[in-house]
Design goal:
The chain is mainly alpha-helical and 204 residues long. The chain has a single domain, classed as Four Helix Bundle (Hemerythrin (Met), subunit A) (Up-down Bundle). Helix content is 79%, strand content 0%. It contains 6 helices and no strands. The longest helix has 37 residues. The radius of gyration is 19 Å and the shape is elongated. The N and C termini lie far apart (55 Å).
């Protein structure tokens, strides 16, 4: 069991390293374009809803706590608490996705979706601003996709926990999926200040 756990943990860390490189490319692109077009990117901060971004940050911090408690519950054979913490983590995950969906709807209504119908109230910055919004949707959309995958993995854990598959002697899937969930949360901790707080104005 110890060898299995170590192998699974090593495999997950290797996977997460590839994910870091994947997100790192988008972070790098954002940094380059923001340095190239500082005025245009500064003008877009009015459209970033800091209040909703902060709310989602708090939601994910809470989900990290419940995920950590789920792992601890499995380690001490507390099956009832394990299931409760998984359900709470799922709940926070869906709250996050709901808030993000509302933000996307705001951008849709304001015609800020990159493409032929994109509209921007500062014509001189329209082209450059569209680059930022493309990166915004690429980065937050990819993160949201990882959240959906995480929700699927948590559902798997919940089903297995009801079948009594986890105990203090075997909780490897809980630990490994917990690592994945924490990684997704950490990515948002970097996305939030980068996209919402640098030069931001509170959404009116």
């Amino acid at each position: 069991m110890e060898q299995q756990f170590s192998s699974a943990q090593l495999g997950m860390w290797a996977f997460l390293l590839t994910e870091i490189m994947f997100f790192g490319g988008m972070f790098g692109a954002y940094t380059v374009y923001r340095s190239m077009y500082p005025g245009a990117f500064q003008s877009t901060t009015h459209y970033m809803n800091v209040t909703l971004g902060m709310a989602n940050t708090l939601v994910l911090i809470a989900s990290s706590l419940t995920m950590a408690l789920a792992v601890r519950s499995a380690q001490v054979d507390n099956q009832k608490m394990l299931r409760l913490m998984i359900v709470l983590t799922l709940f926070f995950g869906f709250v996050f996705l709901g808030i993000k969906g509302y933000e996307y709807h705001e951008k849709w209504v304001e015609h800020l979706i990159p493409g032929p119908h994109f509209e921007y109230n500062v014509p001189n910055y329209a082209h450059q601003a569209q680059i930022l919004f493309f990166l915004y949707f690429a980065m937050t959309g990819t993160h949201a996709l990882h959240m959906v995958i995480g929700a699927g993995l948590l559902t798997y854990l919940l089903i297995k926990s009801y079948k009594g598959n986890f105990s203090s002697h075997y909780y490897t899937p809980v630990e490994i999926i917990g690592l994945y969930w924490h990684f997704v949360d950490i990515v948002w901790i970097f996305l939030f200040p980068l996209l919402y707080l640098i030069g931001a104005h509170l959404h009116a």
